[in-house]
Write a structure and sequence with these properties.
Layout lengths: L8 E5 L3 E6 L10 H15 L6 E6 L4 E3 L24 H10 L3 E6 L2 E3 L1 H8 L2 E5 L3 E3 L2 H4 L6 H10 L1 H10 L2 E3 H7 L4 E3 L4 H13 L3 H13 L3 H17 L2 H11 L11
Helix pairs in contact: 1-2, 3-5, 5-6
The structure holds ligand LW2Y6JES.
The site of ligand LW2Y6JES has 26 residues, from β6, α3, α4 and α10.
Length: 265
């Protein structure tokens, strides 16, 4: 797919990094099938980019990095997002593309990193956040769950107790709390976020690309079993998405009311 055909994202090659940006600020950079397809294409393209060692992955506008799956699109009869992948958008392929990309992927988080957006922060190699950023999971509140990297790998970053708290309470965490729990690498004043990301990318760009690629593969190897778990788990989520219990979560979010899950159990 040529870069000029991207509708939901932008792709730019800078001096120190490729910048991949979700460009759907009107829905807080939530993703739909098209967004995920374009992101897969972009991360594969970045993997081949010879001039830089890093990717800066962000979301357009000031409000959100990414708030996960687009809940307006998810209001479908069959409970799925569309025609591709296990749940109608190939999120499992995108998570793999980010991990398989030989560049250091830096999440640039200026606002909300919620749901699947929080999973992106978990998977990216590094995360740099503005002091205005907020992190959290909403899955069990809106009829969803990530049964792979968003849970099992999250526990490796923040520890089992904290990971369970994140999923079982669905609270929001400020940037300094995310830093303290090990979810992110650095918090900076809002207006210094881009400069900080660029500084990190420039440092990385001075290093050996092959050594970096081997180090990334080696880090990944130790948690590679989670990819298998993820594929099986997301296949199970497909069945859950088709249930009335899950559909109630999506409907309630869109109707701006509290969900009533108990009536479906
Ligand atoms: C981000 C919020 C906390 C912001 O709250 P607030 O400031 O009160 O603003 P709102 O009024 O709620 O939102 C403003 C505006 O934006 C729209 N919006 C926000 N997020 C979304 C979204 N994800 N989809 C569609 N639209 C969104 C909102 O509707 C408002 O628009 P109006 O037109 O003005 O009404 C809060 O908004 C929030 O919590 N958002 C998150 C919503 C959510 O449910 N996200 C999806 C979670 S589930 C998921 O991401 C799974 C996706 C997936 O593909 C997957 C599947 C299976 C396994 C794994 C995965 C995976 O890992 O991704």
């Amino acid at each position: 797919m040529p870069v000029s055909n991207y509708k939901d994202i932008t792709y730019e090659v800078g001096a120190n990094a490729v910048r991949i940006t979700i460009n759907r600020p009107e829905v807080f950079n939530a993703f739909r099938t098209q967004t995920v397809e374009e992101l897969i294409d972009a991360f594969k393209r970045a993997d081949e980019e010879k001039s830089v060692n890093a990717v800066i992955f962000g979301g357009a506008g000031d409000k959100a990095f990414c708030t996960g799956g687009d809940q307006k699109v998810h209001m479908s009869e069959d409970g799925l997002y569309g025609p591709r992948g296990l749940v109608g958008l190939p999120i499992e392929e995108l998570q793999s593309a980010i991990r398989d990309c030989r560049k250091v992927v830096i999440a640039r988080v200026q606002g909300f990193a919620i749901g699947g957006g929080n999973v992106f922060c978990t998977i990216c190699d590094l995360t740099i956040a503005s002091e205005k950023a907020q992190f959290g999971q909403v899955g069990p509140k809106v009829g969803s769950v990530d049964p792979g990297f968003g849970t099992a790998y999250l526990a490796r970053l923040v520890g089992e107790k904290k990971a369970r708290e994140i999923w079982f309470l669905c609270r929001r965490y400020k940037a300094d709390e995310a830093l303290a729990m090990g979810l992110i690498n650095k918090v900076v004043p809002h207006d210094q976020l881009d400069a900080e990301c660029e500084t990190w990318a420039a440092e990385i760009n001075a290093l050996s690309p092959t050594a970096i690629a081997i180090a990334k593969r080696s880090f990944n190897a130790d948690s590679e079993n989670i990819r298998g778990l993820s594929y099986l788990g997301i296949a199970a989520v497909k069945g859950y998405y088709q249930s009335d219990e899950s559909k109630e979560g999506v409907k309630a979010f869109n109707e701006k009311r509290k969900p009533d899950f108990k009536k479906f159990v």
